[in-house]
Amino acid sequence: MTPIPTTELIVVRHGETKWNLGERMQGHSDSDLTPLGLRQAEAVAARLARENIDAIHASDLGRAMRTAEVVAKAIGLAVVPDARLRERNMGVFQGLTVEEIRRRFPAEYDHFISRQPDYVIPDGESMRQCHERVIQGLQAIADRHPGHRVVVVTHGGPLSGAFRHTMQLPINAPRRWSLFNASINRFRVQESRWQLVLWGDLTHLDGLTSQDDF
Known about the structure:
- By secondary structure, the chain is an alpha/beta fold.
- It has a single domain (7-201), classed as Rossmann fold (3-Layer(aba) Sandwich).
- 36% of the residues lie in helices and 17% in strands.
- The chain contains 7 helices and 6 strands; from the N terminus they run βααβαβαααβαββ.
- It has helices at residues 18-21, 35-48, 62-75, 98-104, 106-113, 127-144, 156-167; strands at 7-13, 55-58, 79-81, 149-154, 184-190, 193-201.
- A 6-stranded mixed β-sheet has the order 3-2-4-1-5-6.
- Helix 2 (35-48) runs parallel beside helix 3 (62-75) and helix 6 (127-144) packs across helix 7.
- The protein starts with 6 loop residues before the first strand and ends in a 13-residue tail after the last strand.
């Protein structure tokens, strides 16, 4: 009987951004990496360049692509952009701090923090819509690269979604785990079965950690 190939997904959250520092909702809007964020990307790249990587996929948003491009240059591969790996579309919240959202959109913010899976932020998307999009994207990447090791650069929300999917947690369960910038997180995918191998590895950063843990 032929063994079923296992794909290793090395999922990386992008480096620190200016809006991370300002505690602003990013969603599908974008913010440049900070100087620290670029150094974090370089540290991830140096770490992953020591491994046999077969492909690099990334959210097509600028902060993820910039991080992925630094990694790709070190490894010698091209980045495959994928809109399915984007952060949740935060709609009218994008670019605002929590205090600004509370003041400008009080009713919408109350719905948002209630963690209703199907609540759609105005001009944005629901928690469930984002989760299903991301998991479909990650599964498609695993199916495309059976038996290979693939780097995926994405965002805090999608990374949390991968954790929930693997651990079979409700998509609206309170988060009790950190999501650090430029962390390395390893999953094994065998057909539709997911296994978490390593979570929140920061050993490559060596003092370059940021304050934002999403």
